[in-house]
């Protein structure tokens, strides 16, 4: 029994030795334990057990003391930040990073934000938040609340640009092992402007275990940029070759520096060739970016014009209040967000049907109260609807004031889809393109698959024959005008995510809407879709060299010349009424 117990105690002693080593008591306790293990056979198991009991009692007492000592040492290090010498502060920041305390990241961020203060009486460095001309302080190590001080009792720990740069680099290095891939990628890219030997060594170590291809590629960029400054020309050429075709902006900047300053002609030629390759790729992706902006602008034009195409095609009415119906949809979005301040993401889905109903109801009122009484008199209808537009603008100014209102963008529509360093597609514009296509599809289904759509098509093609077949043309006119006005309200929801909402919002799009309808073909939805995207893309490609105003003028001249040859647009409407028009 004595032998068995001694073996168990021997195993326990080995485990204890390993635990001690893991807790960094190697030098203090390993040697005594080695002696114990060497001479344990000369000890009785009772004496050995007694020794272990005493040892664990000592460990239990002194472990908290060691933890407390570590906290005290770290606080002493932080207190040294109260010095006015910036070079000393720089060294202290380096030591803080090396300590790798759980609060290190928070402390560094607080330094950047200017929230670290020193208590003048004790020189203790703490976190301080200003509230009503007083400073509420918190312990930086254990997050315990401390006293409240006046401004004269504390002083801010100030840092310069060199320290600020060091902190940002250190924070990036701390995030390189984060579980989230996007955070790791952002951390790598944040080091582009402050690449050092320390950063490169860290990257080379992490490359062995990094699984994300995007993060690995960014790390290779860091290493290659560092090698561009090598004393060996062959190393610089090798680094240039690895960066060929890379679209990160920092790569282009570094290559230009080599072309201007490098003494080796071979390196300069290689950098020039790499830069040409990058420029050609940039031009390709810039073209894609312009195309994307053109499609997004075209989507807005389609949403603004598609309701006008329906009413213009069926009723032959030039509705100058169409822009104000768009404006009402945008203000409806603003009001819905006021009613749902805690659910901005959901408010957009509520605003779409609400804007449709509000604008549709106002449209039906306009049709019943004004347009119906002036049916067949195009010029008088134009003037009357222009007057209605002024009335709607003044009503909005009276209720909401003439000032613009900002509609919040939901989180799921914020940010951008980054393809590479040059091309990024903003989520709000991507969603608007998709939304435009969804609205267009639903509208096509309504006109093709419902009884209202059948009657609308009948009236638009031959009003007299439709009446003879029992179609109530007056009811169809009201519903059609309401449908077109409702779609205009939905366009206002989309526009509220791209621009500020104001009383003159609709005026910026009414002329463009008419151009889209005329160019595509009056009453033809497919023509509206194609002409909207076409004019949007053409406009965005012309803006860089012609300017926004001249581009619109040139497009207007083009449409005027076009309708001289094709008066009924790209896709003319068919039917007797259309032929008569």
Write the layout of secondary structure elements.
Blueprint: H1 2-22, H2 26-38, H3 45-79, H4 86-99, H5 104-112, E1 116-119, E2 125-131, E3 134-138, E4 145-150, E5 154-156, H6 161-175, H7 181-189, H8 197-206, H9 213-227, H10 233-243, H11 249-261, H12 265-315, H13 322-339, H14 344-369, H15 378-400, E6 416-418, E7 424-426, H16 427-449, H17 451-461, H18 463-468, H19 473-496, H20 507-520, H21 525-546, H22 548-565, H23 576-580
Antiparallel strand pairs: 1-2, 1-5, 2-3, 3-4, 6-7
Description:
The protein has 23 helices and 7 strands. With 581 residues, it is mostly helical. The strands form 2 sheets. Strands 4-3-2-1-5 form a 5-stranded antiparallel β-sheet. The protein has a two-stranded antiparallel sheet with strand order 6-7. The protein is elongated and about 95 Å long. The relative contact order is 0.07. The N terminus and C terminus are likely disordered.
Question: What features would you highlight for this structure?
Answer:
581 residues, 5-stranded antiparallel beta sheet, 5% strand, disordered N terminus, disordered C terminus
Share in helix: 55-70%
Q: Can you give the mean pLDDT?
A: 79
Question: Which outline best applies?
Answer: elongated
Question: Would you list the SSEs in sequence order as H and E?
Answer: HHHHHEEEEEHHHHHHHHHHEEHHHHHHHH
The count of helical stretches stands at 23
User: In which order are the strands of the major sheet placed?
Assistant: 4-3-2-1-5
Low-confidence stretches: 1-43, 51-69, 575-581
């Amino acid at each position: 029994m004595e032998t068995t117990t001694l073996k168990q105690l021997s195993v326990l002693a080995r485990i204890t030795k390993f635990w001690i080593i893991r807790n960094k008591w190697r030098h203090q306790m390993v040697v005594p334990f080695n002696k114990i293990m060497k001479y344990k056979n000369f000890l009785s198991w009772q004496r050995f057990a007694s020794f272990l009991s005493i040892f664990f009692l000592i460990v239990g007492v002194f472990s908290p003391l060691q933890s407390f000592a570590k906290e005290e040492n770290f606080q002493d290090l932080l207190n040294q930040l109260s010095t006015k010498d910036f070079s000393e502060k720089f060294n202290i920041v380096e030591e803080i990073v090396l300590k790798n305390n759980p609060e290190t990241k928070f402390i560094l961020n607080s330094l950047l934000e200017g929230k670290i203060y020193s208590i003048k009486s004790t020189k203790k460095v703490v976190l301080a938040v200003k509230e009503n001309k007083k400073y509420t302080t918190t312990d930086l190590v254990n997050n315990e609340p401390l006293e409240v001080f006046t401004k004269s009792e504390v002083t801010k720990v100030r840092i310069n640009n060199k320290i600020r740069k060091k902190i940002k680099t250190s924070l990036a290095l701390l995030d390189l092992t984060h579980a989230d891939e996007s955070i790791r990628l952002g951390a790598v890219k944040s080091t582009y402007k402050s690449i050092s030997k320390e950063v490169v060594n860290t990257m080379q170590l992490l490359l062995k275990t990094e699984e994300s291809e995007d993060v690995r590629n960014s790390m290779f960029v860091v290493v290659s940029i560092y090698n561009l400054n090598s004393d060996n020309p062959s190393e610089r050429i090798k680094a240039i070759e690895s960066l060929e075709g890379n679209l990160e902006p920092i790569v282009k900047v570094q290559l230009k520096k080599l072309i201007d300053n490098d003494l080796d002609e071979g390196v300069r030629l290689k950098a020039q060739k790499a830069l040409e390759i990058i420029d050609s790729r940039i031009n390709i992706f810039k073209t894609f970016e312009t195309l994307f902006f053109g499609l997004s602008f075209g989507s807005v034009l389609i949403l603004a014009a598609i309701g006008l195409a329906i009413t213009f095609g069926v009723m032959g009415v030039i509705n100058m209040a169409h822009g104000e119906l768009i404006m009402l949809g945008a203000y409806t979005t603003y009001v819905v967000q006021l009613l749902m301040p805690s659910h901005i993401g959901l408010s957009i889905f509520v605003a779409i049907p609400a804007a449709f109903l509000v604008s549709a109801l106002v449209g039906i009122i306009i049709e019943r109260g004004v347009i119906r009484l002036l049916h067949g008199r195009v010029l008088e209808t134009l003037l009357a609807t222009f007057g209605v537009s002024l009335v709607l603008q003044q009503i909005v100014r009276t209720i909401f004031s003439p000032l613009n209102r900002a509609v919040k963008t939901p989180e799921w529509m914020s940010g951008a889809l980054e393809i590479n360093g040059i091309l990024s597609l903003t989520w709000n514009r991507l969603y608007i393109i998709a939304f435009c296509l969804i609205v267009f599809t639903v509208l096509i289904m309504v006109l093709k698959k419902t009884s209202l759509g059948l009657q609308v098509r009948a009236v638009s093609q031959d009003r007299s024959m439709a009446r003879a077949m029992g179609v109530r043309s007056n009811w169809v006119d009201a519903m059609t005008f309401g449908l077109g006005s409702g779609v205009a309200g939905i366009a206002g929801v989309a526009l509220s995510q791209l621009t500020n909402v104001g009383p003159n919002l609709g005026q910026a799009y009414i002329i463009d809407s008419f151009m889209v309808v005329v160019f595509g073909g009056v009453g033809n939805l497919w023509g509206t879709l194609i002409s909207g995207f076409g004019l949007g893309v053409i406009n965005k490609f012309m803006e860089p060299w012609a300017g926004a105003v001249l581009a619109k003028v040139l497009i207007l001249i083009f449409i005027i010349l076009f309708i001289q040859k094709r008066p009924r647009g790209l896709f003319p409407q068919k039917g007797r009424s259309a032929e008569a028009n």
